Amino acid sequence: MSKTFEERFPESASLKGERRRIAREEHGMRRRVLALLREGPKTVPEIASALGVPPREANWWLMGYVRYGFVRATEEVTDEGYYRYAIVAGKD
Q1: How far apart are CA 26 and CA 9, in angstroms?
Q2: Is the pTM of this model over 0.85?
Q3: CB proximity list for 9: less than 8 A, separation 6 or greater
Q4: Which stretch of DSSP H or E encloses residue 69?
Q5: Please, are residues 84 and 43 in contact by the beta-carbon 8 Å criterion?
Q6: How many beta carbons lie within 10 A of that of residue 50, not counting itself?
Q7: DSSP class of residue 82?
Q8: Per residue in 8-66, pLDDT tens?
Q9: What is the Cα–Cα distance from 36 to 15, expressed in whole angstroms?
């Protein structure tokens, strides 16, 4: 017997509303974020501005990419206290 979507992907099935909409954009957003970071390390506000999304949404994407090893925080911190993020070597 085949499993339902909820059984196969419980973490995705529990998403509702805006979070579900954001999660659906994952593949395209990853491509856009990585393209930005190919230009050089950027902060969350810089990424949000370039993507035209709120900083909290840009942060949500970025932390997912950090978690799964696509992106890393650099040692570089801006005067405002923001870390810059860069692509992990071999993930571009």
Answers
A1: 15
A2: no
A3: none
A4: none
A5: yes
A6: 15
A7: P
A8: 556 555 656 766 666 677 778 899 999 999 999 999 999 999 999 999 989 988 998 99
A9: 27
Degrees to nearest 5, angle at CA 31 with 9 and 75:
100
Cβ atoms of 82 and 45 within 8 Å: the answer is yes
Taking the C-alpha atoms of residue 71 and residue 81, their distance in angstroms, rounded to an integer, is 19
Buried b (16+ CB within 10 A) or exposed e, 62-91: bebbeeeebbeeeeeeeeeeebbbbbeeee
Return the number of other C-beta atoms located less than 10 Å from residue 13's C-beta.
13
Does the structure show a pLDDT above 90 at 2?
A: no
Please give the pLDDT value at position 33.
94
